[in-house]
Amino acid sequence: MAVLKNxxxxxxxxxxxxxxxxxxYDACDINVKRQIWLDFQSMFGDECSPLFQQxxxxxxxxxxxxxxxxxxxxxxxxxxxxxxxxxxxxxEMVGDNIRLYETMVQxxxxxxxxxxxxxYCSLRVEFLMALHDKDVQEVTTLDPVHKxxxxxxxxxxxxxxxxxxSRELQTFLESIKxxxxxxxxxxxxxxxxxxxxxxxxxxxxxxxxxLITNGALPRGHTVLILIxxxxxxxxxxxxxxxxxxxxEPRLDVKIFTKFLPMLMTIIVDDxxxxxxxxxxASTEASSSSRQNPSRESTxxxxxxxxxxxxxxxxxxxxxxxxxxxxxxxxxxxxKHLSHFRVKFASSSKQHVASR
Length: 355
Description:
translation elongation factor activity, two-stranded antiparallel ribbon, disordered C terminus, COBRA1, mainly alpha, elongation factor
């Protein structure tokens, strides 16, 4: 066995002999097993299958709801994710063999289509980046989406999309040439990773909050447009791969002209109600301390605060609900709204308090 691991081209007879006995096969060095897997792909699949199952089970234990933004699942850094022992095992199994790498990626595509389980999208990203960390350039340089994944990974690590990286991501999306449309399927799978979806939605709300603070409209913000374009592409990944129709899904312009302004209004109303309640509570406490009951109040609120709360209360518009029901992108943004509207209200209080 010690001699065999240094031989790069073992003949068919030797390979057949090695797989004829399970104990002998198990004792083979990883370099020998790679040669076996190249000739007997089903054996490679048999080695990968239990690892796939274990990986998915681990992810599902951590993530019970892919859109629950408060789960600690999302606090795991990209580097920690790709240092997972199963991801590292896959990287060791493939090594620098491009054929095994391509087979592995095809396994992940097939499993994603068959199960609709988005954790296979995470593994697609983590597997490549594990090889990237090991500087396996024989593989990484030949993967057409390596640079896109690398750039997005850096954004997620830093929790920001700066103008330079946004241009890089956009250039990659727009540089897909005729005959290379299948690359769009791999990009969409990368963007379907729940970590990517969470990051993109979070980044969108950071920009939306900035727009609200500055009284600006969303449709002219180029980075926001790119973020929502990527998010929309990721949310349609399964359809693209399953249908083999490699075309970017249309981003409805009404998302920018109708839905986002309504969403921004909801955030502002929440902020006003929160500020009014805080102001009323502060005033009530101050009045009590002076024992001055002459101030006109309504259930603990002064008249101005009560009016502000009433004027900015009520359910979202019916059109807002229709967007959520019909558009995947709107549904994801609405799901994240419950988390980020609280953060914006809190930041607004701090802003007012500091003035």
